[in-house]
Design goal:
454 residues, mainly alpha, Glutaredoxin, 5-stranded mixed sheet, 21 helices, 5 strands, 61% helix, 5% strand, elongated
Length: 454
């Protein structure tokens, strides 16, 4: 089952106000990066940063011919967009006139505009290094805002890739320039939460809320994380290269190594079906039924909300369910990664059940038999049925999704599902994705399915 994910931050685009010389830009012109506290998934695929260019000073130096006026040559190079040449000329001018403040400002401008170019080419880390050189010459509020924006940009990119250690490093660098920046604190809280540093996440979010009390999303996160800390502070831990497993000893009944082995099996087998093997550690949280219901509040035995959460003692009481539930929830991990969260529930749950019951034709036929008694619901109602309060409707939605997804895989192959995922990851809707890769509308495929099986 897919859980309701924590709202992850979305960086607003920084507006390019000027990239012309002699613009007369002032410090109040720069629009900084915003991270709304409760912005929903999906997150942007690539964040673009634009820096503002500064006013340049034309300076004719004493005792220097026009041919030797390196400051003027630097300005001309900037006019042509030749930033490295401009930096070289301003450096020469600065060596000849080391105490001239206008030359230093022009050199700083050249570094800033070169950083703009690098950032626009997605070379954010190089842009940061260049901007540091500008800050060594003059530490203006504008330059500080620019470098913070770049650090957030790079930290957020690593966060999206689930490279949490790198994300934390860049965001901490941003805090070194502004320790009370609410955008950085909010994102750092998300990074720490997703990497299971939940106490640290709480500290960042508390500080963020203190600075900006209007962030309702942060308030909701703090309410939830306070409950999680109470439950999870006593969890034992077993880890390997692919999984970070936290569990309540009384709930797993000495089955922790079996859980690890089942997850490794899912990593190999489900990964082979999707041709995708995550390169980051996946968090698995295993609770008693009481604590699971307290934190998750669902009738399911497992849920994935960015972390896999399992009601262990319930699962262990049903023969064969442990392995099935772990495979089901692990499939959600892959689907979310491969589609950037842009996958309809019916297909997501259909694929999770396909992997859960893999090799069990008896389960498939049982579902078909039950569906034939009441007939499948109209396809347009299928997505809505998953959020109904009626357990019967939800169960029917699960069965129908599994049967229909199984038909699609049998008819078109798993490789076609992966092609559809590529379209979904680019933001296309499910109808367009099926038309592009199956050459038929979903409506037509569904009609063919009903004709074949009902």
């Amino acid at each position: 089952m897919i859980g309701q994910s924590f709202a992850l931050p979305k960086l607003a685009e920084v507006v390019e106000l000027a990239d012309t010389l002699a613009s007369g830009a002032s410090e109040s012109n720069l629009i900084g990066v915003q991270i709304p506290a409760s912005a929903p998934i999906p997150m942007p695929k690539k964040l673009k940063i634009f820096l503002i260019s500064f006013f340049l000073f034309t300076l004719f130096l004493p005792n220097a011919s026009a041919r030797e006026n390196h400051n003027q040559k630097g300005i001309e190079a900037l006019n042509r967009g030749e930033y490295r040449e401009a930096i070289l000329q301003f450096k020469i001018a600065s060596r000849r006139f080391p105490n001239n403040e206008l030359i230093k400002k022009n050199l700083s401008t050249a570094y800033n505009n070169y950083a703009l170019k690098l950032a626009d080419e997605d070379k954010t880390e190089e842009a940061i290094d260049v901007l540091k050189k500008a800050l060594q010459l003059q530490r203006t509020p504008l330059l500080i805002k620019n470098i913070i924006a770049l650090y957030i940009n790079q930290g957020y990119e690593y966060f999206q890739k689930k490279k949490y250690r790198e994300a934390e490093r860049f965001l901490e660098q941003a805090l070194s320039y502004d320790k009370d920046n609410p955008d950085v604190l909010s994102l750092l809280g998300n990074v720490c939460y997703d990497s299971q540093k939940i106490k640290k996440a709480k500290e960042y979010w508390q500080k963020c809320l203190k600075i900006d009390p209007q962030q309702e999303g942060i308030k909701q996160k703090l309410e939830k994380i306070s409950q999680e800390i109470k439950v999870e502070r006593g969890l034992d831990k077993i880890t390997n290269y692919h999984f970070d497993i936290r569990y309540q000893e009384n709930a797993v009944r000495n089955q922790e190594y079996k859980i690890r082995d089942y997850l490794e099996q899912a990593y190999r087998e489900v990964g082979q079906d999707f041709n995708y093997f995550p390169r980051y550690k996946i968090i698995i949280l295993i609770y008693s039924t009481k604590d699971y219901q307290k934190l998750v509040n669902t009738r399911s035995l497992g849920v994935y909300d960015g972390k896999i959460r399992i009601s262990a003692d319930q699962v262990l009481d049903i023969k064969g369910k442990l392995k099935e539930v772990l495979r089901h929830e692990y499939t959600h991990v892959l689907v979310r990664d491969l589609t950037a969260g842009n996958c309809p529930i019916w297909l997501n749950e259909g694929l999770a059940q396909y992997e859960q019951y893999r090799g069990s034709s008896a389960e498939l036929e049982r579902f078909y038999k039950l569906l034939r008694k009441k007939k499948p619901m109209p396809f347009e109602d299928l997505e809505i049925a998953f959020s109904c309060v009626s357990p019967e409707l939800v169960t029917r939605a699960y069965r129908q999704s599994y049967c229909f997804t199984n038909y699609i895989i049998d008819k078109y192959g798993m490789w076609r599902i992966k092609k559809i995922f590529e379209e979904l990851k680019q933001g296309k809707d499910i109808e367009d994705a099926f038309r592009q890769k199956c050459y038929l509308s979903l409506e037509k495929i569904e009609k063919n399915w009903r004709r074949a099986r009902f």
